[in-house]
Write a structure and sequence with these properties.
Keywords: Secreted, Self-incompatibility, Signal
Structural class: mainly beta
Strand order of the largest sheet: 4-1-7-8-9
Shape: globular
Strand content: 35-45%
Main location: secreted
Organism: Hibiscus sabdariffa (roselle)
Helix content: 10-25%
Pfam family, one: Self-incomp_S1
Number of strands: 9
Radius of gyration: 18 Å
Order of helices and strands: HEEEEEEEEE
Protein name: S-protein homolog
Distance between the termini: 59 Å
């Protein structure tokens, strides 16, 4: 029995929706460098360039996305301030599986800090710059 366009188009649409279904993740970048120091941020994934942003000290910028079901979603950002430039993977589906809902990254001169579980609001895990 051959499939006509009408017979398999609805299952195909359902399958495509299933591929993009998931919990929305909000990545929040907070400038914790020092008073008067702007943080320049350029975030992107393999198929999504979010452009360049400037974040004043104490302020934040955020974006949201839905990770794919293959757990291959990756977002990385280039951070720069006062002649310093650093790159960091702010979301890797394998490494940051616990990052659900809002995932906050605090950028300092020493590195990035995050609270991936959100259970203890004042407990952050820090990654020194490489």
């Amino acid at each position: 029995m051959a499939f006509s366009g009408k017979n398999w188009s609805l299952p195909l649409v359902f399958f495509m929706l299933l591929l993009t279904w998931g919990d929305c993740v909000v990545l929040k970048i907070v400038n914790k460098l020092s008073q008067g120091t702007d943080l320049k941020v350029h975030c992107e994934s393999g198929d999504d360039d979010l452009g360049k942003k400037t974040i004043s000290f104490g302020k934040s910028w955020e974006f949201e996305f839905i990770p794919n079901i293959w757990r291959t979603t990756l977002y990385f950002c280039r951070f720069s301030w006062q002649g310093v430039s650093k790159r960091f993977d702010v979301y890797d589906a394998f490494k940051h599986d616990a990052c659900r809902g809002v995932c906050e990254w605090r950028v300092s001169r020493q590195g990035l800090c995050t609270n991936p579980y959100g259970l203890e609001p004042h407990r952050f895990y820090c990654y020194p710059w490489q």
